[in-house]
Amino acid sequence: MPLHRSRRVTLTDVAQACGVSRATVSLVLRGSPLVHAETRARVEAEMLRQGYVYNRAAANLRQRVSSTVALVINDLSNPFFAEFAAGVDEALGERGYVTLLGCSNESAERERIVLGSLVQQHPAAIILSPAEDSTAAGVAAALGPRTPLLVFNRALGGTAPTGFQFDFLGLANRSGARLATEHLLARGHRRIVFFGGHADSSSCRERRLGYQDALAAAGIALDPAWMIESAPTRLDACARTAALFAAVPDATAAVCYNDAVALGLMLGLAHHGRRPGVDFALTGFDDIPEAAVSMPPLTTLCADPRERGRQAAQIVLAQVAPGGAVSHAPVIAPVRLVERESSCHADFR
Amino acid sequence: MPLHRSRRVTLTDVAQACGVSRATVSLVLRGSPLVHAETRARVEAEMLRQGYVYNRAAANLRQRVSSTVALVINDLSNPFFAEFAAGVDEALGERGYVTLLGCSNESAERERIVLGSLVQQHPAAIILSPAEDSTAAGVAAALGPRTPLLVFNRALGGTAPTGFQFDFLGLANRSGARLATEHLLARGHRRIVFFGGHADSSSCRERRLGYQDALAAAGIALDPAWMIESAPTRLDACARTAALFAAVPDATAAVCYNDAVALGLMLGLAHHGRRPGVDFALTGFDDIPEAAVSMPPLTTLCADPRERGRQAAQIVLAQVAPGGAVSHAPVIAPVRLVERESSCHADFR
DNA sequence: CTGAAAGCGCTTACAG
DNA sequence: CTGAAAGCGCTTACAG
Predict the structure, then answer these.
(1) Which of A160, B209, B246, B340 is the most buried (most CB within 10 A)?
(2) Host domain of residue B25
(3) Rounded to an integer, what distance in angstroms lies between the CA atom of residue B154 and that of residue B166?
(4) Cβ–Cβ below 8 Å for B100 and A105
């Protein structure tokens, strides 16, 4: 017979039905060896019979612990961040934590609201992939003083209020972009542009620096006109292709801000009668799934976002663990060049 | 001066510092008009000073309510489901709920574990986008009898245990596929295959039925060889292109299971020397962001996953509301044909 | 307008 | 091996 929907079964119900105390049921729940085997069996059978569901929130309250970690994502429709979120959730789940999700949709204002709501659940820690215009002061205000924070992927804007400490996990943007540029240089290219991204985002700045490192090491003077901005999306990158050739008519290659931009540029090249990987070489950044199956496949830097998510979870759980590390040294994850055809057929040596 | 990390500030701390009772602080918290304005101001200032953070979990326990909804997603790296998740989170946030996230990675076993963990947080409801091999019996066992459930997108396998009730939100798979097929028929195509998807998934079965409806209405006899299976991914679809032309050498068009399959087929067509949208027409399903910017742009059916997420949230919150609807009639969201070039240049009338 | 007391569902010393 | 009692941080009648 189905039970009434009205009231949930509690530990007290089970204890009464078995004729034991609540303490005993609690011990059964936690697998204590103190309980007599026969008693344990009776209690467990009764739990099953009544459809008892453990209330972890109540247990957490009593124990003054938390079994959740909050994850705030700037853009879940970007596969890079979706993979990151999946990795976080996977690693948290393995350690018995539940993920509280929040999406900021690249708005610092929504981010603030979402953080304010999540922090009331008293998560053990917060993992934040910040919106483009997010500031350290705004995050600090929304968070209050006590919740450990890990910032992923890009730096918070502004200067941090004194005493506001957090972990950071980022990608090797500079050395990655340098790798990509060196790869194109090694194939004989000399007029290589840096294409896409917003110059005021920290990741774009860092990638441009790596590009400049490689050019300088090759003895090539940088013309600032060789760095063309775009929104970090396929659509805008496609539209900005004309700006690229207006600025540098004889460019033969582009280091793109990321894969979305690179795929947009491929489309734009086609509209301009240029064949990517044949007439013009290009590289991306991220190695999103589409990179491997585009026409031609895209040479890019693999950032392994799912693994980064797992790493982020591990860092915050280490902070939370009793006697956990309290160093807040930034962690920079290396990236790996994946050579594909978009950069391979075009040889201008 | 920064406060000690050791102990969180509670309502009791604030009350003591102000020389009022905890009840009064609680009333301030909840914006009660009973509290004297001067008292309220003193209490609020003290909260700010001490960095008090409301503990919603404790309040929920006392009030016997829940402020969370669990969301279990089969594949977050698929933009369709990622958008759905973003929509769910957005709509829940607007209503003051927090999303508990879980990912099953298309494994019914992980789904069961994830559900078991989430249900212990006592969410107000659960929204489940099931793994391919998920069964009603498995979900029922993991859930216990009391948590309202909404299943999204595909039917649970097996037969539901008696008394196991849940809501369902799905797409108009059959009528959508019929629309796509009729669109190709109207452009003169006669040898139209149905390409991709696993025949044993409910959505593939339904889309095939819509395809067959259209062919039958046009007086075209269906050859079972015209339905070619593939994994619902770009990569496998690309690989199965050879099977398509082996089975139906003179096919001129394909209704594809979804956009990923259609984009894979485009790639496969290129390898076979066929130009999509010129030599061969095709349609997708979902309208993922890539569909609009592929070469050529893909004619497809728009399912608006973000809006579906919002809709799912609304349905479960209506169930949960006091005196909420208890009808569990399935909701089928319509889809809309978006005509683009992949089906437009190829005219075989 | 404010306070004392009980209770949400659990855990944890402490007795026995 | 089991039970009585106190307490986690909040809310809610009930007095005053």
Answers:
(1) B340
(2) 11-54
(3) 13
(4) no
